[in-house]
Design a protein that fits this description.
Blueprint (H helix, E strand, L loop, with lengths): L1 E10 L2 E11 L4 E5 L6 H8 L7 E6 L2 E2 L5 H6 L1 E5 L10 H5 L1 H5 L4 H14 L4 H4 L9 H14 L4 E5 L7 H18 L2 E6 L2 H7 L2 E6 L2 E6 L1 H6 L4 H7 L3 H7 L8 E2 L8 E3 L4 H11 L3 E6 L2 E7 H5 L13
Parallel strand pairs: 3-8, 3-9, 6-7, 7-8, 12-13
Antiparallel strand pairs: 1-2, 1-4, 4-5, 9-10, 11-14, 13-14
Helix pairs in contact: 5-7
This protein binds adenosine-5'-triphosphate (ATP).
Adenosine-5'-triphosphate (ATP) binds next to strand 2 and helix 1.
Organism: Deinococcus aerophilus
Keywords: ATP-binding, Nucleotide-binding, Transport
Protein name: ABC transporter domain-containing protein
Length: about 325
């Protein structure tokens, strides 16, 4: 568990971060969100000591990170940034294997792990293992960066706008892939983003910052339905609920069953916002959800609005 206690960073007169108290739950993805200059990156980089705090402390599993050597600390904390900086003269496989090789891990084992991670991030190892970074698209390079960060198998992953430089389509695909990876590996991830959709879509929790301070810390649901201040409401915008639905699969709102006769249908692969559109178009407050031609249950207007939580909600099939 990572805990920030009264964390501060001053640059002369500028208070980049002030009195920040925050615990990042193990195995969850926390999005650090907020307007430009609010202190997100400074906060992130104080966790792995790329920036030294001016006050307060960072605890990693109860231990003050000042008592750890920075190199040792960083070995246990993966770091992914927008400009991933792959080594241009090394192949994709060698890039991913950087840290395991550095640590003198077994070669054959590392090779298997590299292939596994390439697969996991959606790159066919047979095709990509031997390529050089210059032969990759931006999205592919970013995938390699994610695979490289995971290769050392760090319990904690810090990410700074990792998908920021990608075009919207590549970003969507990689976000989706990363969400699956995170659900499977259950790393503790802290991700800086200024993209509200990304934060609501990927974050188990969101820490919304403003002018160096924490404005609200909670689940996406908390921020949308129980904003702590006018700033939170305004920052997320009027269409916050719709944004959130666009990032969630319709099966997350499913009440499993054989459906109800006569209801309009929606494909299980679609997002919850599409379900809402179909309901409005068809004038129906419930839909049968269909996968491979078979009805797997229903989704209701109330469930989408968060008025009722389907018994099996979250994680069903998605
Ligand atoms: N090395 C530095 N020297 C002086 N001021 C700095 C330095 N680094 C950051 N700051 C200031 O600290 C504040 C927080 O910066 P930080 O980069 O953490 O913000 P951010 O929320 O990550 O912003 P963005 O979304 O634009 O990247 C800003 O006002 C910035 O100008």
């Amino acid at each position: 568990m990572i805990e920030l206690q009264q964390l501060e960073k001053r640059y002369g007169e500028t208070h980049a971060v002030r009195d920040l108290n925050l615990s990042f739950p193990d195995g969850e993805l926390t999005a650090l969100l907020g307007p430009s200059g609010c202190g997100k990156t400074t906060t992130l980089r104080m966790i792995n000591r790329l920036i030294e705090p001016s006050g307060g402390r960072v605890l990693l599993n109860g231990q003050d990170t000042r008592d750890l050597r920075p190199e040792a600390l960083r070995r246990g904390i993966g770091y992914v940034i927008q400009q991933i900086g792959l080594f241009p003269h090394l192949s994709v496989a060698q890039n991913v294997a950087t840290v395991p090789d550095l640590l003198g891990r077994d070669r054959a084992q590392t090779r298997r792990r590299v292939d596994e991670l390439l697969e996991l991030t959606g790159l066919d190892p047979a095709v990509f293992r031997g390529k050089k970074p210059s032969e990759l698209s931006g999205g592919q390079a970013q995938r390699v960066g994610v695979a490289r960060a995971l290769a050392a198998d760090p319990p904690v992953l810090l990410m700074d706008e990792p998908f920021g430089a990608l075009d919207p389509l590549a970003r969507d695909t990689l976000q989706e892939a990363f969400r699956d990876i995170q659900r499977r590996l259950r790393k503790t991830v802290i991700m800086v983003t200024h993209d509200i959709d990304e934060a609501l879509r990927l974050g188990d929790r969101v820490a919304l910052m403003r002018a160096g301070q924490l404005e609200q810390f909670g689940t996406p649901d908390d921020l949308i339905h129980r904003p702590a201040s006018g700033f939170v409401r305004q920052f997320l915008g009027e269409d916050a609920t719709l944004r959130q639905l666009a990032g969630r699969n319709v099966t997350e709102f499913l009440t499993p069953g054989s459906g109800q006769a006569g209801l309009p249908t929606i494909e299980a692969a679609l997002n919850a916002r599409s379900a809402l559109s179909v309901m409005l178009r068809e004038g129906s407050d419930a839909l049968n959800v269909v996968r491979d031609g078979v009805t797997v249950g229903t989704v209701t207007w109330a469930a989408l609005r968060g008025d009722e939580v389907a018994p099996s909600s979250r994680g069903v099939g998605g």
